[in-house]
Design goal:
By secondary structure, this protein is α/β, with parallel strands linked by helices. The protein has 6 helices and 5 strands. α2 links the parallel β2 and β3. α3 runs parallel beside α5. This is Nucleotide-binding universal stress UspA family protein.
Length: about 160
C-alpha cells in the first residue's frame, strides 16, 4: 500500500457518507488517492469448505452496494478524486486499523451507534483511535441525521 493515500471506512449510514465526503475533499486538496474500505463478516458458521454460491453472491452484492454508496455520497466530487474500493471480510475496527498501517490518514464516521448496539459491536471510531498507526479523523454524523432521531421521553 502506498503512503500517499487516505483510507476511509464506509457503511451505509449518514455519518459514513459525511466521512467519505470529508476524506474525498481532503484527498483532492492533497493530491492523494482515496482508498475506500467496506467490511462484511462471515455467518457464524465461518468459511464454508466448498464454494458457496450464496457467499459469492453476498460478496458481489456488498461490492455493488458499496460502489453505489460511494457514487451517491460523492456525487459530482466522485469524478474529481482518485478512489479505489476494497471490500474486506472482518470486523470494521481491526480491518481499518490494518488497512491504514501505511496510509497517511484514516477517516471514520462516528456517533450513530448507541445503547445495546454499541455495547455489542463496540465503537469503530474508538477502536481506530486506539489502534491505528496513522492519524485518525472521526467525522460526526450530519446535524440533520442527529435531529431526525426519535425523542425519548423521561418517565
Amino acid at each position: 500500500m502506498e503512503r500517499h493515500q487516505i483510507v476511509v471506512g464506509i457503511e451505509e449510514t449518514p455519518s459514513s457518507a459525511a466521512a467519505l465526503r470529508w476524506a474525498a475533499r481532503f484527498a483532492r486538496l492533497t493530491g492523494q488517492t482515496l482508498r475506500v474500505v467496506h467490511t462484511w463478516t462471515l455467518p457464524s458458521g465461518g468459511m464454508p469448505t466448498a464454494p458457496d454460491p450464496y457467499l459469492v453472491t453476498a460478496i458481489t452484492d456488498a461490492r455493488a452496494r458499496a460502489t453505489r454508496f460511494v457514487e451517491d455520497s460523492l456525487g459530482a466530487e466522485e469524478t474529481s478524486v482518485r478512489w479505489v474500493l476494497d471490500v474486506d471480510e472482518g470486523r470494521p475496527g481491526p480491518v481499518l486499523a490494518r488497512r491504514s498501517e501505511d496510509a497517511s490518514l484514516l477517516v471514520v464516521g462516528t456517533g450513530e451507534h448507541t445503547g445495546v448496539r454499541r455495547l455489542l459491536e463496540g465503537s469503530v471510531s474508538h477502536y481506530c483511535l486506539s489502534h491505528a498507526t496513522c492519524p485518525v479523523v472521526a467525522v460526526p454524523a450530519p446535524r440533520a441525521a442527529k435531529d431526525d432521531a426519535p425523542a425519548v421521553a423521561a418517565g
